[in-house]
From TrEMBL:
Pfam families named among the record's database cross-references: Cu_amine_oxidN1 (PF07833), SGL (PF08450)
Domain SMP-30/Gluconolactonase/LRE-like region: 272-495
InterPro entries xref list: 6-blade_b-propeller_TolB-like, Cu_amine_oxidase-like_N, Mao_N_sf, SGL, SMP-30/CGR1_Lactonase
Domain of life from the UniProt record: Bacteria
Cross-referenced PANTHER family: BLR2277 PROTEIN, LIPOPROTEIN-RELATED
Keywords: Signal
Protein's name in the database: Copper amine oxidase-like N-terminal domain-containing protein
Signal peptide: 1-25
Residue intervals of the Copper amine oxidase-like N-terminal domain: 38-142
Amino acid sequence: MRKKVVVSLAVALAYLGSLTSSAMAADAVKSDLKVLLSGKAADFSDHAYLVDNSLYAPYELIAKAVGAEAKWDAMTKTLTLSKDGNTIQLTADTAEQKVNGLAVVTGTPLQVINGNAYVPVRLVYETFGNQISYDSQIRTVSLATYAQPGFKVFGVGEQQYVTGSELRASVVTLNQSLKDYTQNKEPKKGEGHIHAALDADPLGESALQITKGEPVIFKNLKPGEHTLNVQLVGNDHKAIQPEVKQAIKFRSVGASILTDLDPEKGTGMRIEGVTGDKQGRLYTIDMDSKQLFRIAPETGKAEVLTVLPRSATGMVFDSKGNLYMASGGGQGVDGVVLRVPAKALEGGAFDSSLVETFVSGTNGANGLVFDASGNLYVSGGATGNVYVVKPNGESKVWASGIAAERKEQLITVNGLDFGKDGLLYIANTSSGEIHRVKVNADGSFGKVERVAKDPLLYGADGIMFGPDGDLYVCANERNAIVKVTINGKVTEVAANDNKGILEFPASLHFVGNTLYISNFDVQRGANNPNAPGIGASIVKLELGGK
């Protein structure tokens, strides 16, 4: 049954630093850290706790230290801290805080310890614009106040992605009280408000004027690059001196379901591969019924072309328009690569007898990619192998030596693609890594090199280089799409929980600046349980141009 789909961007804010990790269900231990406030011992040092290596202290003492008013609701276990017209709200055991009304992901929720509310010190201090550092050699936390007027922007950061047509951000002023300029017209030091503009001058007529702590909302964003311009002004709307302003470049991503392949059910059908032909038409396979689908990208209409002789996953076209499909085998059944001749795809439905076995002996076959010479590379999943198949069907095996990191997930060689540098890039699902290797002129392989390893790559599956030259990755167990530069920089493009538009994304395919993604919908990781979602479907992400 089709469910309501909620799209969200998992924006990981850089609060946490060297002290922090998830604190959702950890034990609190008395802190042995030394805490300095402006060079002197902090009042709360003797009352602090550590939860998963994050420093926590009683909310009353932290509120006093940052100069905020505190309100604790014991019934809802919610704390509200207010300062200069700004508020942050923390609730026990909730993996987000609200900053001026905007929900922001955090790995350090408020804790109730021995019946008292304790707040994460780093999060509160940095939200209100103060500085914090940690010296691991002497186990000392140093806190310093920020004395100059300023602001912090939450909800969007430099070069981040925003999913959907709406930007929701929040601006916290520092050492500058938010005032309603209609009631406070005369310039006064320490008072003012915020001007915010999208792709425009923050002092121009189109700028939003923010006089109280609430989200800043821009609607009808088109996919592509944008700049959020924010500036601190006085009651007279003139820029304070010296000027305090920030220009944040980000990219908006349009997100939708192109087609729901099983509209009667939210779970059940399994599709893993997705690819496209030269006409831009998309193809995928139902692994259980073995039906091969062709999908029109303009309408999302799907037609069944044939029933394959066996189940298949990864898919790719060669330069002549022949379609290849990986079938990994298992339990005494050899892995093979199937092929549909280009001629069979010229019309509509065709007989399954036209489906050929191109090569056998490719156990664990999953990801597929061609090199410039027409050689087919086949990933071997948990075998760690890459099979290289010449156009005439001759094959050889390269044992990559790439190791598994998780016993419950042994797939080490999954998605494959060639970069513009000519290197073969490999997704390691087990460890959340991207590797690359040089394929020499004689067909031998060089030394495997790690490009990136990052928590954002957990469950790295299908990969493909985009038109911008960066590698896009399905992080299946996170319900996420992640971008990796050839220099190893990792950026979240889109992510959601098990109620969102991505449901265990497995493969992806670019048509221009539009990215199509197959929802495998396995009940694992962020997609567990999988019942709330839409099920087997193709997602459309419009990345837009520059």
